[in-house]
Every structure is written in C-alpha cells, then in structure tokens.
Design a protein that fits this description.
Elements (H helix, E strand, L loop, with lengths): L1 H46 L8 H8 L17 H10 L5 H22 L6 H12 L2 H6 L6 H17 L2 H14 L1 H17 L3 H25 L3 H11 L9 H7 L16 H23 L3 H20 L10 H20 L5 H47 L7 E4 L2 H8 L2 E3 L10 H8 L4 E5 L13 E5 L2 E5 L9
Parallel strand pairs: 1-2, 1-3
Antiparallel strand pairs: 3-5, 4-5
C-alpha cells in the first residue's frame, strides 16, 4: 500500500512537472498580448486626445442613447451596435473625454481577447507582432476610441476566423454576431469564405454557429427595416443609394489618396499623396503573400489562407463597388491580414543563416521604424484637423444660443446634423442622405419653436428661409426663423 501510494504521488508530481512548462508558456504568451493591448490603449489616449469632440457620424450614434440632444436621423445603412456599445457611458454622461477613455480601454481589452483566441494557431510572438502592426496603423489608433463601428467589425472578424480555425462554435457565433450587430453587410462579406468552407467541408456545427451569429446580430437591423424603412429590400436599396449606388467602381486609387489622412474621400479628387505615405499600403499585400508562402512551406496553409481569404472579401466592396473611400472601411481586412504578415516578417528575421540574417533583420527594423514614423505623422495631422472642425461646431452652437436658438429647436442646411448635436437641437433635411422632412414641415415648425438654417458663405439659402433674419455666425451665413427672432406667436 505504501509503495502504491508513493507511486501515485510520484505520478502526480511528474504530471505537474510536465504541465508546469505549458502553463508558464501560456502565462508568458498572455502577458505578451496584454502588453501589446496596453500599449495600444496608452497610444490612443496620448495621440487621439480624449478631449477631441464627437465627429459627424459619432453624433448620430451617441444621440440615439445620450441626453445632450434629440436622436439624429438614422439613415438606412447604419446599425444600432455602436449606440449599444456607448450606452453604458453616454446614457448618463455628456462627457466626451469620459466616453473616449471608456472606448480606448474597451478597444484595448477587445484586442487582447481577439488575439488570445488565436493562441495555439500561431506562436505568441507572431500574434503580438500582428497586434502591434494592426494597432499602430493611424486608422486603428484614430478610430479605436471613437463611437464608430468599423474597429468592432475588425475585432469580430478576428474572433470569428480564429475560432473557426480552432473549431469553436460559440466563438464563431460570438464573432459573427458582433460583426452583424455593428455592420450587417460587412459581416456577410467577411464571413463569405467561412460559409463556403463549412458547406464544402460539411462542418455543420460550425455552419450553424456562423449562421446563428449572423442572424442574432442582424435581427434588430432586419426587424427595423420592416418597421421603419419599408422592408429589407428597400433598406438595402436605400443604403446603396446613399453610398452612391453600389456597382463596379474602381476605388483602389481613392483608398490610396485617403491614406494622407482624409477620413472621408468623397469626391476623391486631387493628386496622389507622397509615396512615403502610401508605400505601406502597397507593400501590405506583398507581405501577405510572403506570409502565405511561409505557411505553405510549413504545411499549415489553412491557418494563413483562410484569414487572407476573409480579408480579401472584406476589402472587395470598398475597393471595387463604391465610388469613394474612407480608410476605416478596410479595418477588418487589415486586422485579418496582419497575422500572416507578422508571420512572414518573423520568418524574414529568423530564417536566413550566416551573414544574411543580420541584413534581413536590419531591413525589417528599418522598414518598421519608417512605417511607425509615417503612421504617427498621419494620425497627428488627422487629429489636429478633426479637433479644429469640432471646435468650430462648438463655437457655432454657442453663437446660435446667443441669438435665441436653444432647445427645443431645429437646425437645417450646411452641417446641420453635427452642429445640431452640439446645440442640443434636432436636425432636418429636405434632400440628401439624411432626408427626414419637407420644406412645408420646416416652415410650420419655425412658427412654434426656434429654427435656424445654416448656409455656407456666399451660397443661396433654401427658399423656406429666404425671408428669415440673417446673421453671420462663426463664418457661416445663418437664417433664423420667426420664433427665435422674436417674431413668433
């Protein structure tokens, strides 16, 4: 009995000794990924500045749950995911810095969890490198702490594809649901290769999880389509119209032009930016191919090929089906491509022997340093410009209050939607993507509450505001209706 007991104890100790190195490796891997995520949070807070006001689209999403202004018009392409994301803060506080800090921390935590999903598919140093590459892009840094959906689609894509490769149904479901909650059409494009692979491979449990995730995430958007937009087909049609009509449009050059820091390139005119600003964007697909070659030689093709397929389908509509560009649209593609790219770069600095290894290491280090310098320069430029624009909206709001336009009130015309948020007003439009009223309705409203029509300098006001009292406020021509001007009932 004694010998038998000793034998059992010795067996347990051997098992614990064997398990200890595995636990230590996992702990080190988690610490490495957490370090990348923590650096991402700090970089957002340092570079994007929590005090930067809300942007145009942000005011739409935040106003749905916030108390600063009435809910803005919610156009057909938008989904409610971002409003749900910001509700824990925006529903009780109007502090933009608090909201930015909340989103920065949340985005860092999400990046850590999304990279952790891939543990076991790729080594920790590859995942850390991929996270660092993705997190250091100016567009990732800029949109991480913003109330916008594209970063969260990227996180959902990482979770869904990583769990697909590991055969984890609930993870696939969660990733697909997150994407569909944020942007349902993007979720379909990202998961298209996964849907095909599950059918071809008869992996029915994964297919069920993937479809269930898409359905759960998009359910509210589909229901809302029938309640407010005349049905699903009509909402999709309206979404296409608002985006200029989906069809064959070569937008690759538009995306390159936007890399100078243009958050919306519509219309995307002008010359190409300096090659130093776009070289990383051109090199990225080449490095992705290198990562795929490395995977094929290592006999783990699927681990790199599948995320690259999903990155390709995610990018396809924004490169070839719309007539303008916004860099944030490609965030899911960047996130998925970053993993095989990091794998390829690591191979470059570890594979060559003899005198070639120092040369390869030096070239990669030099390239990454130049890349970081470019990304910092662009994010600094875009943050400065965005801050200036949003401060101008705040000043216009203060001037409107001074001339009697205070809540409850309505703004129309040039940049009425974001300025209305800062003023605490509703916004109305009789044409364009945010059409939600008519001239007759605006005239009737102006007899009851303050209404102001904003006009770009030297432009003609709308007919309904032609006889309203003119002002020049913060560089804008403003026509104020009869109630605010003292001529109302």
């Amino acid at each position: 009995m004694t010998q038998g007991g000793n034998a059992v104890l010795m067996g347990v100790r051997r098992h614990e000794a064997a398990a200890a190195p595995g636990r230590l490796r996992r702990t080190r891997a988690d610490a490495l990924l957490a370090g990348v995520a923590g650096a991402f949070v700090l970089a957002q807070l340092a570079l994007v500045r929590p005090g930067m006001g809300l942007g145009w689209d942000e005011t739409v999403y935040v106003s749905q749950v916030g108390a600063q202004a009435p809910a803005s018009y919610f156009s057909a392409p938008r989904a409610r995911g971002v409003s749900l994301l910001v509700a824990p803060v925006a529903s009780w506080s109007t502090s933009t810095p608090l909201l930015r800090i909340y989103l920065a921390v949340l985005s860092g935590l999400a990046l850590y969890l999304a990279l952790r999903v891939w543990r076991g598919v790729f080594p920790a140093r590859v995942l850390a490198g991929a996270g660092a590459l993705f997190a250091s892009l100016w567009v990732t840094l800029y949109y991480g702490p913003q109330a916008m959906p594209n970063y969260w689609v990227a996180i959902g894509a990482l979770v869904a594809v990583g769990c697909f490769l590991k055969g984890r149904v609930w993870g696939v479901l969660a990733g697909a649901a997150l994407m569909a909650l944020m942007r349902p059409t993007d979720a379909v494009w990202v998961t298209a290769p996964l849907l095909v692979l599950t059918v071809v491979g008869r992996r029915w449990r994964l297919l069920g999880g993937l479809v269930a995730g898409l359905v759960l995430g998009a359910a509210q958007w589909v229901i809302e389509a029938y309640l407010r937009y005349g049905g699903l087909a009509q909402r999709l049609h309206d979404g296409s119209r608002i985006q200029g009509g989906l069809g064959w449009n070569l937008a690759v050059d538009d995306q390159m032009k936007s890399q100078v820091g243009r958050t919306l390139c519509r219309p995307c005119t002008g010359e190409m930016p300096h090659p130093a600003l776009t070289v990383w964007w051109v090199v990225l697909p080449l490095l992705a191919v290198l990562g795929l070659v490395v995977a094929v030689r290592a006999r783990r093709t699927a681990q790199s090929l599948i995320p690259l397929l999903c990155a390709t389908t995610a990018a396809f509509p924004y490169l070839f089906l719309i007539g303008y560009a916004a860099p944030r649209f490609l965030l899911p593609a960047y996130a998925l491509a970053a993993i095989p790219v990091a794998d390829g770069l690591l191979r470059l600095v570890t594979a060559p022997g003899g005198r070639w290894r120092p040369m390869a290491t030096a070239l990669v280090a030099l390239g990454l340093a130049a890349h970081l310098a470019v990304q910092y320069a662009v994010v600094d430029r875009v943050v400065t410009r965005s801050t200036t624009d949003r401060e101008a909206w705040e000043r216009t709001a203060a001037e409107l209050h001074r001339v009697g336009v205070s809540p409850p009130c309505v703004l129309t015309g040039y940049e009425a939607l974001p300025i209305a948020y800062y003023t605490g007003c509703s916004s109305a439009a009789v044409k364009g993507p945010n059409t939600n009223s008519t001239a007759a309705e605006i005239e009737d409203t102006a007899r009851r509450i303050p209404v102001a029509h904003l006009v770009y300098p030297d432009s003609r006001p709308a007919g309904y505001a032609h006889d309203w009292t003119p002002y020049r406020l913060n560089g804008l021509d403003v026509r104020v209706g009869p109630v605010a001007d003292g001529g109302g009932p």
